[in-house]
Design brief:
The protein is an alpha/beta fold. It is built from four helices and five strands.
Length: 131
């Protein structure tokens, strides 16, 4: 039986306070696929709302979503497992939304590619003209 850790409200409050104070660029890399039984039917905005509910609306400056084409074969494989692709629902957001090639499909799985994510993060962190 899997145990679920209990996170105290004071702990989350401390994280929320630190995020609010931080001048660091806050980047969230959105899930590529939903998790059966956990995020069924979620779009990117639903993931962001859940994050903001726990950390405050200031939690993220930039959301990164993938721009990869997932094959119909993989879409169907994940559908059979109760998962679906996380998509962007709305055109406008209170945070920056960027799309990058950040996925790998090795072993017929949809996963974030560590090297692609590293390159993307370096690019975002080193953007010129960042305020």
């Amino acid at each position: 039986m899997e145990s679920v850790p209990c996170i105290q409200a004071s702990f989350l409050s401390g994280i929320r306070d630190e995020l609010a104070k931080s001048q660091a660029q806050k980047i969230y890399i959105c899930n590529a696929m939903t998790q059966p039984g956990e995020t069924d039917g979620y779009c990117m905005e639903d993931h962001m709302q859940a994050l903001m509910d726990h950390t405050g609306s200031f939690a993220v400056d930039t959301v990164v979503c993938h721009n990869n084409a997932i094959s119909e074969k993989l879409i169907n494989k994940y559908k059979d497992m109760g998962a679906s692709e996380v998509k962007i629902r709305d055109a406008k957001h209170s945070y920056e939304v960027l799309k990058y090639d950040i996925l790998t499909f090795e072993h017929d799985l949809v996963r974030h590619d560590a090297n692609k994510v590293r390159i993307m993060m370096e690019e975002l962190i080193n953007r010129k003209g960042r305020s």
